[in-house]
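Example 3.2
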Amino acid sequence: MRMTARKKEILSYYQPDNLEWVTGEIGPPPFDVSGLAYLVCGLDSFDTRHHLESTRRTLETMVKDGLLEKVTSFERRQDTTQSGDGKGIWCNCSRYGLPGSCLVVRDEGGKVEAIDGEAVRIDN
């Protein structure tokens, strides 16, 4: 495994020092490909598919190397043909987080049956 500058940059977004700023920009972790592409490539990531695909390949390599964990969620996303007030479409979305941090699923009152109780995060 080669630790490239891009991989280091992506991992830096998960550090506690940067997490508040990153959460304000693209939301809380786990992050999706488009959000991380925006942080890595800037606004250019919205204009060309190359930036999204390059970031996705880097994230998949990081998952294979054990640096990140991938989780798939069913989310409403903005379709590229819709205006800003469109309802969006439901699709599977890949999200990436630090290993061990993607195991808890947020209950939003949907179809997932939640177990009543308390969740506690244990930092290593």
